[in-house]
């Protein structure tokens, strides 16, 4: 017989789900445990498994569509089976579906059963909320009620823990998130219920909950009155528990987490005062409990009778409670950040990146820079050296100075080097055009001018267009090594780290040295590993013997 598959409630705060992806299509065979679909909730995207076997006869929500909890999203049954009657029932008013169940209920409780011709009931007008078995773990299919913390007729608050539920991974608390009177308990202690089954109803005292039970279809309405009698007969149990010995705290009303913490700390729950409804002990009570005051009194009374040589009992170590405030700030995504996100995502997930790293001895570059700055009209930086060296090396390795254009590869005969500049909103890349023909002083002036314009938001679009190669330098931050994402349509980008003073081996001896690591990120559609390595080898030679830059 065909069965309706409804949108599950996959989190306590979920009201609707989005069908991110269907893993089956109409006509496919489905086994119990197969993943039918991926459902995006308000917290995460999760797999939704089938709990029955059959053929997928109908899909009610297309990919990307949203549906409220309990809406029909699919129908499973025998191949060729007529399922339209199920759709007609699902499409009618909420109370129409349980109409067939009214007769059996009437057999059990004739006085309380509604007449078959009763008008349709708008469930949204009933001042009560159904509490269902929540999905407390990704693999959970059912949960066992270990303990009810309230009985039918009790007043509950929105943050009260209604019950302790044992899942396939742990025992957790179920919070109702509704204030009112506990009108109905659908699963007894020790019994199991499937995910999304009705386990309780909370609402206004005296509310007729029969339509809610019929609509849920998971338990007979006759049980609504039964728990009242059952809980009355068990009222004596909690009272008796409070009178038990202080050595046995197994019957004390406490949450599973509070009980675990108390056990770890060696605290007897009989000595702890509960702050929750009905004196129930929660995590906070155990963490804030100080045993010294409670233990001091018995110790003082027993002192006269104790032997003089008896050593006092050691109080358990109690760690101080640390509490903090969770807070955060949010800001809208700027257009610059959106552009960076879009372009770099396209680059990383479209261009197959590979990375080649090389260490460069910067001793001679340091000496050359110091000598040049004694006579240069502007101060030359190590970044200027790298820009010039890259420009010269690109002349010798034109494959690195290329672009991938889909159906063709463009090899650029001009050298335009983009230099990444960090600003508050993100990253800008002004371009030093024809860098291979410019002097170190010329490059230094342009880089400083572009950096100032970038920080003052005065860079023009034309000054950021046309790069054939990009350099990203984090050396000023003391970075040891990093990789960069290619600035498309460039085929490569060079990540430059800081100069580190480290011991190096020269002529068979360990001596102090100054090493800078560079990493080339290359688009494998354009550049091969050997080509990238050859480019870095040339770059290394130029920086280790800076006189080559002047030839």
TrEMBL record:
Keyword Acyltransferase: yes
GO terms (BP aspect): pyruvate decarboxylation to acetyl-CoA
Peripheral subunit-binding (PSBD) domain span: 253-290
Low complexity bias locations: 92-118, 219-245
GO molecular function, one term: acyltransferase activity
EC number assigned by the record: 2.3.1.-
GO cellular component, one term: pyruvate dehydrogenase complex
Co-factor(s): (R)-lipoate
Superkingdom: Bacteria
Enzyme class label: transferase
Domain Lipoyl-binding: start-end pairs: 2-77, 128-203
PROSITE patterns: BIOTINYL_LIPOYL, LIPOYL, PSBD
Pfam family for this entry, one: E3_binding
Stretch list, region Disordered: 90-118, 212-257
Signal peptide as annotated in the record: none
Sequence similarity: Belongs to the 2-oxoacid dehydrogenase family.
Descriptive protein name: Dihydrolipoamide acetyltransferase component of pyruvate dehydrogenase complex
Organism lineage string: Bacteria, Pseudomonadati, Bacteroidota, Sphingobacteriia, Sphingobacteriales
